[in-house]
Every structure is written in structure tokens, then in C-alpha cells.
């Protein structure tokens, strides 16, 4: 993957305010943004969408096409008059890769500025030779995703990685995880960015799922919501008005580390942490009471799905989930609770309705609880939204550095935040 030139959105404009050159840059950015947002567009439609004159739209198209940022990709099918040329943004010069790092393996997929869907590739843990190494594992995931999407890995400028943990934003240290063998504990994003030659964003997996549910799922119409991730571990993502709250040290929502409440003894006298109430250990315990066994969480969830005592298990699970979300209700009072992760996906609205009922009967809150809307690769869905914004920003910022006639096309920019 190639190195790219860094341009921060906070850097001074290359032109003086109010000059024709600045207006040209603003117009060109508008044009490119509209093409990214709307797909193939004619010159006349671009003028209409931008509110600019047809000659100005034609000039914008000329400059962007000469710079290699857009290209003619066909003709319109209008029945009136001659067919008009359709222009599209050239997106293969800056692409991203979304990666989900889980104990069983790594999933990855290419993301471009159009948001088009590309194949998801899974590589099982232990497939690579030698000791685990974060940079090596991520590079393999990037190469595999690019191969599946027929993309050049050299075009990857940004990577978003979902992990079961967090990165301390002030120190760039890896925190709230005892797993991830082979990962650097200090200067995490800096080290990985240097090794991969791309801008690496490392994000908590539950936070990425909350981004996905906000953009296209159960949280899209809620002013605030809390997303409870339930699987081999436990996490809580907080969306406050469309922004995920990460906390000063990146540890907001790491509720699994706090002590179990006194009321938990009625359901699990051995629970010492909140994490003990709703994780794979809990599912194994509740399944065993019904004579259900399995090797690992996924196998247990599959066995429960078709078992006649499934709803009885959910009746026992719901109070535990209710106890887990009560702190979030007391502190944030979100408009909605979304149950997610492998357990939330497996039990869906059947569990959600039981948790909502328990909260109404045993607390002062009557907060709506829902199951997940996005059940297939939800972490990658969230990472895709992060990357779509990032690669679009890189393309748009390249407009400020369009060459004069005869110069080489500009290098694509990316922001560092």
C-alpha cells in the first residue's frame, strides 16, 4: 500500500478567502460531493443539483476530469433530444478496508466512496504461519479483501479495525482487553499505520455496531440509544444524538468490569462481575439446566434455537439482561435499548420483549427494548460507514490541490483524525 500525502481539514486554505481560486475549489468540491452522493450524473443535472449555471458546471466537470477525479461512464437514456454524457467519480484511487478481529478469526471487506457492497473474506485464527502479529494479520486481511474485490492493495489509504477492546485516545494505548495476541500495547494506531502504509483507525466493536444501527437500523430514529453487545464478552455502546460516546479514556460502556449488583444473587449467586450475568458462561449455565450442551457459544446458540425449551431459557435470561442495562438507564436514560452481539442476534425480539417487560415491572424505567436490525457482519457494517466518510473526504480534499494544466494529477489526501 502506498503512502499518501496528509492534508488536515484544519490546514489553511491554499487560496485566499474570497478569491476566484477559492470559489473554484468550493465549486469543484461541491460537484465531486454530488457525484459521490448521487452516482452517474449529467452536466445539466449537476448544474441543477448544485444551483450553479450550466457553463460553471461544464467547467467543473472539465477540471475534475482532467485531474482524473471523475470520468465519463455512459450516456443518459432520456427520450428528449440527444443523449447526455454521464459522469461518475473515480473511486479506485482511494479505497478503504473494514476489518473485524474476533477470537475465531478475521473478517474483512473493501469499502469505496460509493458505498458499493464487496465480498467479505474470513480467515480463521491460526491460518498464518508463525507467531501472531497484528500488522502481518491485518495485511493478510487487506490483501484477501482486495483480491476478492479485484482491487489494487496499493490503493488502500485507510483501514478501520473493530476489536474487543478500546484505544486510549490520549496515549494511543490498547486498553480494556486481555486478548489480541501479537498486538502492540502502546502507540497502537501509530505503529499499525506505519507498518501498513495506511491510516489505521482502531475502534471498539460494539461502538461500530452502534454506528451501523444508527445509520441503517433500529437506532436511526432515536435521539439517543444504548446498544448492549452480548457474546463471549459484554459491552455497552452509547449513541448520544448521533455521536458514539467513547469517554475520556476510550472506556465508556465497559460495564463488564463493574461488580455485580446485590440483586444478581437471586439469579446467579456465583456472579462477581456484571460480565458474569450475560456472556457465554451464562448461556452455558442456562442451557445445561435444560439438558442442552455444545462446544462454544455459537454451537450452544444454534442448539437452543431449535429446542422446545427455548422460551423458558429466555425467561431466565431476561432478568439478567435487565440488571445489566439498569446502570445505563439511570445515568443516560436513553430513548431505546438495542440488544445485540451473538446472543442478541440469536434471540432477537423474543428476548427484547421479555427484557422490556422486566424493566417495567422491576424498575422506574419503561424504555423500549428491541432486537438488532443488522445481523450479518454488523461490525463490518459500522466500519464501512466510517470508511465511506473517510475515503469521500480524501477525494474531496484532493480538489484543493488540483494541478495547473500540464501538471501531474494530485495525490489523494486524507485527514489524520
Automatic annotation (TrEMBL):
SUPFAM superfamilies: Actin-like ATPase domain, Winged helix' DNA-binding domain
Cited Gene3D superfamilies: 3.30.420.40, Winged helix-like DNA-binding domain superfamily/Winged helix DNA-binding domain (1.10.10.10)
Name this protein carries in UniProt: ROK family transcriptional regulator
PANTHER family the record matches: BIFUNCTIONAL UDP-N-ACETYLGLUCOSAMINE 2-EPIMERASE_N-ACETYLMANNOSAMINE KINASE, ROK (REPRESSOR, ORF, KINASE) FAMILY
Family from the record: Belongs to the ROK (NagC/XylR) family.
Pfam families cross-referenced by the UniProt entry: HTH_24, ROK
InterPro entries documented for this protein: ArsR-like_HTH, ATPase_NBD, ROK, WH-like_DNA-bd_sf, WH_DNA-bd_sf
Amino acid at each position: 500500500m502506498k503512502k499518501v500525502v496528509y492534508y488536515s481539514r484544519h490546514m489553511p486554505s491554499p487560496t485566499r478567502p474570497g478569491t476566484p481560486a477559492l470559489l473554484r475549489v468550493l465549486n469543484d468540491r461541491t460537484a465531486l460531493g454530488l457525484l459521490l452522493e448521487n452516482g452517474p450524473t449529467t452536466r445539466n443535472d449537476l448544474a441543477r443539483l448544485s444551483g450553479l449555471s450550466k457553463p460553471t458546471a461544464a467547467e467543473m466537470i472539465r477540471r475534475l476530469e482532467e485531474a482524473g477525479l471523475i470520468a465519463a461512464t455512459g450516456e443518459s437514456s432520456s427520450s428528449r433530444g440527444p443523449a447526455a454524457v454521464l459522469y461518475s467519480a473515480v473511486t479506485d484511487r482511494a479505497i478503504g478496508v473494514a476489518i473485524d478481529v474476533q477470537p475465531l478469526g478475521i473478517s474483512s471487506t473493501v469499502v469505496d466512496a460509493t458505498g458499493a457492497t464487496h465480498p467479505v473474506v474470513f480467515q480463521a485464527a491460526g491460518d498464518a504461519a508463525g507467531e501472531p502479529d497484528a500488522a502481518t494479520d491485518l495485511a493478510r486481511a487487506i490483501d484477501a479483501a482486495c483480491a476478492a474485490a479485484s482491487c489494487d492493495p496499493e490503493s488502500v489509504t485507510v483501514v478501520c479495525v473493530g476489536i474487543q477492546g478500546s484505544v486510549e485516545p490520549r496515549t494511543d494505548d490498547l486498553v480494556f482487553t486481555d486478548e489480541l495476541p501479537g498486538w502492540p500495547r502502546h502507540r497502537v494506531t501509530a505503529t499499525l499505520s506505519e507498518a501498513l502504509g495506511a491510516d489505521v483507525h482502531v475502534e471498539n466493536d460494539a461502538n461500530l455496531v452502534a454506528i451501523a444501527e444508527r445509520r441503517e437500523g433500529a437506532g436511526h430514529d432515536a435521539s439517543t440509544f444504548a446498544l448492549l453487545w452480548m457474546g463471549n464478552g459484554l459491552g455497552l455502546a452509547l449513541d448520544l444524538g448521533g455521536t458514539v460516546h467513547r469517554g475520556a479514556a476510550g472506556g465508556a460502556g465497559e460495564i463488564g468490569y463493574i461488580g455485580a449488583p446485590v440483586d444478581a444473587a437471586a439469579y446467579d449467586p456465583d456472579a462477581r462481575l456484571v460480565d458474569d450475568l450475560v456472556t457465554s458462561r451464562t448461556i452455558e449455565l442456562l442451557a445445561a439446566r435444560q439438558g442442552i450442551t455444545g462446544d462454544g457459544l455459537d454451537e450452544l446458540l444454534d442448539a437452543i434455537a431449535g429446542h422446545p425449551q427455548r422460551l423458558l431459557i429466555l425467561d431466565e435470561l431476561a432478568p439478567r439482561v435487565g440488571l445489566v442495562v439498569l446502570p445505563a438507564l439511570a445515568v443516560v436514560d436513553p430513548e431505546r435499548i438495542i440488544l445485540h452481539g451473538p446472543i442478541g442476534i440469536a434471540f432477537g425480539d423474543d428476548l427484547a420483549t421479555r427484557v422490556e417487560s422486566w424493566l417495567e415491572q422491576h424498575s422506574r424505567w419503561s424504555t423500549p427494548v428491541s432486537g438488532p436490525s443488522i445481523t450479518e457482519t454488523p461490525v463490518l457494517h459500522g466500519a464501512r460507514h466510517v470508511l465511506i466518510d473517510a475515503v469521500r473526504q480524501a477525494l474531496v480534499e484532493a480538489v484543493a490541490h488540483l494541478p495547473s494544466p500540464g501538471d501531474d494529477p494530485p495525490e489523494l489526501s486524507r485527514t489524520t483524525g
